[in-house]
Design goal:
It is built from 13 helices and 22 strands. It has about 450 residues and is α/β, with parallel strands linked by helices. Strands 1, 2, 3, 4, 5, 6 and 17 form a seven-stranded mixed beta sheet that branches. A five-stranded parallel beta sheet has the order 8-15-9-10-11. Strand 9, helix 6 and strand 10 form a beta-alpha-beta unit. Helix 1 runs parallel beside helix 8 and helix 3 crosses helix 4. The structure holds flavin-adenine dinucleotide and 1,4-dihydronicotinamide adenine dinucleotide (NAI). The site of 1,4-dihydronicotinamide adenine dinucleotide (NAI) has 26 residues, from helix 6, strand 12 and strand 18. Flavin-adenine dinucleotide binds next to helix 1, strand 2, helix 2, helix 3 and helix 8.
Length: about 450
């Protein structure tokens, strides 16, 4: 039996970051992980592999659509799917091995196996029970199920199966127009599949700024993705390696079916807490199956904390990481804190979509007086040169104080551009502060400055 200041359960972005930060702060730390590799959902079957496939398929798109326009002539590359999957797997390995290295460097013990908590202060892995002054549960999430849709990870797949398909499907039906559906739907569309997305609501990416939702859907349709909106999927069946999806249109209750080689179920994720024995040690859960925590990540049981996808809030790797750092600092006696008002969200399609802070719809509902500064990438020289002029930057600022309340970007490198606004928001900046900051020319970030200028006397290149 070993004894630790802290045992972290789960080595995803929440858990591994927490373990490393706690070790840096002088605690004796172990991290338990049941998978064969570190990094959790994000590195193994989430962020990293999906971005590798998005990158590779985007390169193909560029070669097919834009190379010749720039005088780069020749045969378009053909797709070697086995090699593309190998590239994705090598990317995963490089990243998961990187975490192993960081654990060694920071003297974090990796306890291999599945953990349970027999009592506060104890973590059991296999037959061994380890003592821990503090336990952080960072057990993450798993794909949600949908009644009538049985995932076999071959014909009907979750995001995990969609990252290792045996071949590129001719016809792919995606259930759910959320982040996973649109990112992976884009990958297979670019690789030649006929992709239809079936969405329950009348909008894609629920919760996002309305103007962005509309523009995003239009651009995806231009790329050839098809959408069936307001449609509740009733079930999916498979026969001879093919699938049939049945859905009901909400407006008139009419039923219809779609045939597909592959169906991707992407209707959300739910916390994964199975086998931990949380109820037996008195850890309370929310109605939605999340671990209940207070403002300092403490559960209802003393000495047990929880973070990441397993608790409330957006299911994002960087949110989990920030909570991991904060809880490590709290356990070490410092004042860890996460500002939930400034957590960016990014969709890594092309163009990318990024947001931070409030949407226009939220500000309206709140009755807040606000102004909008918008700038189209059509007015950005760099974007025009790079065939990336679709999209815009939209900054929302308080009408009286000019303080930035939110920003929504659809366009090239949106996921990187958003951070200038995140930093500005952390400093309580006004739109004018961004507008008066010199931005290098020619860069995409000039579009952010122009949107900030548009909150005041006006953009220059509009
Ligand atoms: P996880 O990453 O889920 O890690 C939890 C770990 O705990 C797992 O490895 C699990 O094996 C382990 N575990 C669970 N129970 C036990 C136990 N009892 N004993 C031992 N080990 C245990 N987010 C982004 O921000 N950007 C993206 O681009 C992005 N892309 C995504 C793409 C896909 C396809 C998916 C599915 C998700 C994506 N996400 C993305 C979401 C992101 O992966 C999660 O928000 C993030 O991984 C959550 O981190 P976590 O540490 O809370 O949990
Ligand atoms: P999601 O919550 O983003 O989207 C699910 C969609 O499915 C919603 O639009 C919903 O209305 C729809 N839906 C639900 N039931 C339906 C039904 N019966 N028929 C048709 N449509 C239905 O969930 P998703 O895409 O599965 O992603 C899960 C989580 O993973 C997200 O919370 C996200 O934060 C995270 N993620 C983040 C990424 C990123 O940051 N780039 C990438 C991928 C995932």
């Amino acid at each position: 039996m070993a004894s630790y200041d802290l045992i972290v359960i789960g080595a995803g972005p929440g858990g591994y970051v927490c373990a490393i930060r706690a070790a840096q702060l002088g605690l004796k730390v172990a991290c338990v992980e049941g998978r064969d590799t570190l990094g959790g959902t994000c590195l193994n079957v989430g962020c990293i592999p999906s971005k590798a496939l998005l990158h590779a398929s985007h390169q193909l798109h560029e070669a097919e659509h834009n190379f010749a326009k720039m005088g780069l002539k020749g045969k378009s590359p053909s797709v070697d799917w086995t090699q593309m999957l190998a590239y994705k797997d090598e990317t995963i390995e490089a990243n998961t091995k990187g975490i192993e290295f960081l654990f060694k460097k920071n003297k974090v013990d990796w306890i291999k196996g599945w953990a349970s908590i027999p009592a506060a202060g104890q973590v059991k892995v296999g037959d061994e029970v380890h003592e821990a002054k503090n336990i952080v549960v960072a057990s993450g999430s798993e794909p949600s199920s949908l009644p009538g849709v049985e995932v076999d990870e071959k014909t009907i797949v979750s995001s995990t199966g969609a990252l290792t398909l045996g071949k590129i499907p001719k016809k792919l039906v995606v259930i759910g127009a959320g982040v996973i559906g649109l990112e992976l739907g884009s990958v297979y569309k670019r690789l030649g599949a006929d992709v239809t997305v079936v969405e329950f609501l009348d909008v894609i990416t629920p919760g996002m700024d309305g103007e962005i939702q509309k523009s995003f859907k239009r651009l995806l349709e231009k790329q050839g993705l098809k959408f069936i909106m307001g449609a509740a999927v009733q079930g999916a069946t498979t026969k001879g390696g093919k699938a049939t999806v049945t859905y009901k249109l909400r407006k008139d209750d009419s039923e219809a079916t779609l045939e597909a080689d592959t169906v991707l179920l992407a209707t959300g994720r739910r916390p994964f807490t199975e086998g931990l024995g949380l109820a037996d040690v008195g850890v309370e859960m929310t109605e939605r199956g999340q671990i209940k925590t207070d403002g300092h990540y403490a559960t209802s049981t003393k000495g047990i904390y929880a973070i990441g996808d397993a608790i409330t809030g957006p299911m994002l790797a960087h949110k989990a990481e920030d909570e991991g750092m904060a809880v490590a600092e709290i356990i070490a006696g410092q004042a860890g804190h996460v500002n939930y008002g400034v957590i960016p969200g990014v969709i890594y399609t092309h163009p990318e979509v990024a947001n931070v802070g409030q949407t226009e719809e939220e500000l309206k509902e709140e009755g807040r007086a606000y102004k909008v500064g918008k700038f189209s990438f059509m007015g950005n020289g760099r974007a025009k040169a790079n065939f990336a002029a679709d999209g815009f930057v939209k900054i929302l600022a308080d009408k009286t104080t000019d303080r930035i309340l939110g920003a929504h970007i659809i366009g090239p490198m949106a996921g990187d551009l958003i951070h200038e606004i995140c930093v500005a928001m952390e400093f309580g900046a006004a739109a004018e502060d961004l507008a008066r900051t010199c931005h290098a020319h020619p860069t995409y970030s000039e579009a952010v400055r122009e949107a900030a200028l548009a909150c005041g006397d006006g953009a220059i290149h509009a």
